[in-house]
Amino acid sequence: MANRFSIAMCTYNGAGYVAEQLASIAAQTRTPDELVVCDDCSVDETVRVVERFAASVGFHVALHVNERNLGSTRNFEQAIGLCSGGLIALSDQDDVWMPRKLERMEEVFDRQPGVGLVFTDAEIVDEALRPLGERLWERVGFDRRMRRLVGGGRALDVLLPGWTVTGATMAFRSEFRPLVLDIPDNLAMIHDGWVALVVAAVAGVAFIDEPLIKYRQHSRQQIGAPKKKKAGAGLGEIRAALVRSNPYGGLIEIGGRVRQRLVERHDDFDSGHALLLLDARLKHLRAREAMPARRVRRLRPVLRELLSWRYHLYSKGVYSAVKDLLV
């Protein structure tokens, strides 16, 4: 199946790394049809590096230099909107892609027409691209259970927190762009979490259990991989978890905004099933957020959530129920 594959890249003062990222794009076994670069008012040599690259490759490179600084979310929104391909991959300015990244992702899209988004694992490396001995999925907690849920059609539940899919590891079908854009910039997630979540609401999600980028960690990047959790905390860590608060409000706001977008675009996308799932998840989150201050009064709402099986579907089962009763 013939696809046009676009890459949406955002740059900002990335001259120290962007040449390596661009070189890895040029070295893809599946050459992109288009690279759209939106530069957010860089004051270093980033634009010149991109211009030299554009003159040296055989595929189209569209460089847009912003008149004013937009910030990463608005800049990615712009880059996505300018892409003309049927498949759109997102790219940061400071990573390095493995040669078969686009080829492997396109294979999945071609093999599974119902899949709207594909993401991969990544190798975490330091500033000099030296491996740190970890994968990105380990850091974000995308473990076997989460993979089973995504494989079983529950990607929406897995992706709601917004940190599972990193933008540089994803590609999606451009037919979902009207659902993705505009990207909210006032939620507890950035552009990549939003893109993955709204596409997952109306289409299949597939993942490639292979590190197809070198995810560079350095002091000047915006987000980076989550910090590694300390091992061996044992019972003390469990006790600490019991007294930590949970960001129900943030999740409720994210879920509500996704629901609003699905309703707004209901004429274009079949979102009925997703709305039912979201409503059930939001009901559970609101129930947990509204637990009475007095422990004795929590028994009824906890039992209600247990009997509805929502603790098992959307939280950590009995563990979460006990936490709500005791904390």
Helix content: 40-55%
User: What is the gyration radius calculated from CA atoms?
Assistant: 21 Å
Question: What's the SSE pattern?
Answer: EHEHEHEEHEEHHHEHHEHHHHHH
The tally of beta strands, per DSSP, is: 9
**Large-scale geometry:** elongated
What does the average pLDDT come to? Answer: 89
Biggest β-sheet description: 9 strands, mixed
Poorly predicted segments: 229-245
Q: Indicate the proportion of strand residues.
A: 15-25%
Count of DSSP-assigned helices = 15
Query: Which structural category fits the helices and strands?
Result: alpha/beta
User: What is the end-to-end distance?
Assistant: 55 Å
Description:
This protein is an alpha/beta fold and 327 residues long. The protein is built from 15 helices and 9 strands. Strands 1, 2, 3, 4, 5, 6, 7, 8 and 9 form a 9-stranded mixed β-sheet that branches. α11 (248-264) runs antiparallel to α12 (272-289) and α13 (299-307) runs antiparallel to α15 (318-326). The longest helix has 18 residues, at 272-289. Mean pLDDT is 89; it is low at 229-245.
Question: In summary, what is this structure?
Answer:
This protein is an alpha/beta fold and 327 residues long. The chain is 43% helix and 18% strand. The protein has 15 helices and 9 strands.
Which labels suit this protein?
327 residues; alpha/beta; nine-stranded mixed β-sheet; 15 helices; 43% helix; 18% strand
